[in-house]
Amino acid sequence: MKQIQTMKIELINDHYQTIPEAFKKEEILKLVNLVLEKTGFESFENKQINIKYASEEEIQFLNEKFYKKKGITNVLAFTNHLKFPDEEANLIGEIAICIKQIEREARVYKKAIETRLKHMIVHGVLHLLGFDHKEKKDQLEMEKLESDIISSCLGERPY
Asked: pLDDT tens for residues 5-19?
C-alpha cells in the first residue's frame, strides 16, 4: 500500500476515557489512506478529516438536527466545501462515530467491534469523498468498496 503522508486526521474524544488501540489515530490514518488509495483519491496534500467519538446523546442530537432522523445512529458524515486559505490544512469534513451503537451492532451482526468500527469509518470517509447510497447502483458500488477495503486490511468481510 502506498503511504499518503499529507492527509491529517484529527481524533476528537471527550467522551470515552480509554480508546482501544485499533481505534487510535495511527490505525485510523492507515485505514483512511487505504480508502484514498482504493478510490483513486491520492492527491490530498494539506487536507484534513476530523473524527469525533460521540456519546449516544450527541449522535442522536446531530442525527435529528442535521439529518432530520430520530434516534441513535452509528456514523454521521458532514462534508465541508469551505477552504481556509490562511491555514495549512483544508478540512474535507467531519465524521461522528458512536462507539456504543457500534458495539451493539457488532453483537447483532456477529462481527468484531474493530471490524464494525473500521467499517463505519470507511463508510463515513466514502461519504466525505462524495459516495452515497440513495440509489441501488450507488449502494452496491459503495458496499463493494467497503467490503474490498475492510477485507484487505482485516481479512474479514464487513457484511
From this structure: 457 888 888 777 676
- Sequence-ordered list of residues with C-beta below 8 angstroms from that of 142, at least 6 positions apart, any chain: 123, 126, 131, 132, 133
| Alpha helical stretches, state H, the chain | 25-39, 56-67, 99-109, 113-128, 136-154
Count Cβ atoms within 10 A of the Cβ of residue 13 and give its class: 0-12 exposed, 13-18 middle, 19 or more buried. Answer: middle
Cα–Cα distance, 147 to 76 (Å, whole number):
19
Amino acid at position 118, single letter: K
d(CA 52, CA 10): 8
Residue in 25, 24, 32 with CA at minimum distance from that of residue 127: 32
Domain CATH code at residue 125: 3.40.390.30
Q: Is residue 159 part of a domain?
A: no
Taking alpha carbons only, the member of 17, 24, 81 closest to residue 51 is 24
- pTM for the model: 0.85
Determine the structural domain holding residue 82 and report its residue range. Answer: 7-154
* Structural domain count, the chain: 1
